[in-house]
Amino acid sequence: MQLSRDDLKRAYRSMVTIRTFEERVTKEFAQGNIPGFAHVYIGQEAAGVGVCFDLTDEDYIGSTHRGHGHCIAKGCDVQGMMLEIMGKQGGLCGGKGGSMHIADMSKGMLGANAIVGGSPPIAVGAALTQKLKKTGKVAVAFSGDGASNQGTTFEALNMAVVLGVPAIFAFENNGYGEHTAASYAVGAPSIAERAKSFGMPAEVVDGSDFFAVHQAMGRALERGRAGEGPYALEIVCSRFLGHFIGDPQGYRLPEELIQARANDPLPRFRTGVTEAGLLENADLDAIEKQVADEVEEAVQLAMAAPRPDIKTLETDVYVRY
């Protein structure tokens, strides 16, 4: 599908928002303004944006512990996100979920998930809902190379095929499950080939190339919306930083870290669209300035906001039917 100038600007804005937001999260965490752990998405922006670009609020996604980028790509409000991550009133989950449990049902974002392999079963259930209600929508399960080894993931892949649901499995293979290299821990040479063995189409895509991810996701969406069942994508991308903020990364060679940043999806996108005459550098510079201002505003709002009231401790814990 040919993308318009407005589409290209939207894609770049989303990727830049993720990068700027995550860089600020890293800074605020280091200064003690963010409680708990935080896992940033820097380097993987083209993956999340490419997958979510053509999704609607009625399409579902399930995320991982590294979920900020997925939230932004799905359209979640950055102010509500920053409030949530800092544990403040007005956050997307009332300041009670924090970084690893952030969700926004109004955007079809079913939540980040601290359980490795937790997203695929949830997404299959959401996809079954789409099928039974005949919505023509899909459910996407984001997971990593580490989660590709989980029994929950195997069961979800199998069930998606058996039930013929519109589930799309987006495996972000950044080379590491926490601190363990995929080259050591993943026995199959290809996660995509493993997914195929369950009976669904699957392909490998370059996760530093927004256009490649977007096109592959288009094929998956076409199948899902037509009621033809599940699809899997192995999105090969680079994790610029460690598993969590502050991870010293002693398990990675310096040369590997340099090579990871050489595959930065943002300058790759910028170079591609400007050299093709699709956008001008001035357009992209303006987007970066606007995003920087928006993230700064979100941080200042969150810093000034109060913590959740103790009276709300037992609210929003269980759904009552």
Q: Could you give a quick summary of the protein structure above?
A:
The protein contains twelve helices and seven strands. It has 321 residues and is an alpha/beta fold.
Strand order of the largest sheet: 1-2-3-7-6
Overall mean pLDDT:
96
Q: Give me the CATH superfamily.
A: Thiamin diphosphate (ThDP)-binding fold, Pyr/PP domains
- Indicate the radius of gyration in whole angstroms: 19 Å
Chart the SSEs and their pairings.
Blueprint (H helix, E strand, L loop, with lengths): L4 H26 L14 H8 L7 E3 L5 H6 L4 H8 L33 H15 L5 E6 L6 H13 L3 E7 L2 E2 L2 E2 H4 L5 H6 L5 E5 L3 H16 L5 E6 L17 H9 L2 H11 L5 H24 L17
Parallel strand pairs: 1-2, 2-3, 3-7, 6-7
Antiparallel strand pairs: 4-5
Helix pairs in contact: 1-2, 1-11, 1-12, 2-9, 4-12, 5-6
Question: What does this 3D model show about the protein?
Answer:
The chain has 321 residues and is α/β, with parallel strands linked by helices. It has a single domain, classed as Rossmann fold, CATH 3.40.50.970. Helix content is 45%, strand content 10%. It has helices at residues 5-30, 45-52, 68-73, 78-85, 119-133, 151-163, 182-185, 191-196, 210-225, 254-262, 265-275, 281-304, and strands at residues 60-62, 139-144, 167-173, 176-177, 180-181, 202-206, 231-236. The strands form two sheets. A five-stranded parallel sheet has the order 1-2-3-7-6, sandwiched between helices. A two-stranded antiparallel ribbon has the order 4-5. Helix 6 (151-163) links the parallel strand 2 and strand 3 (167-173). Helix 1 (5-30) packs across helix 2, helix 1 (5-30) runs antiparallel to helix 11 and helix 5 packs parallel to helix 6 (151-163). The longest helix has 26 residues, at 5-30. The chain starts with a helix and ends in a 17-residue tail after the last helix. The mean pLDDT is 96.
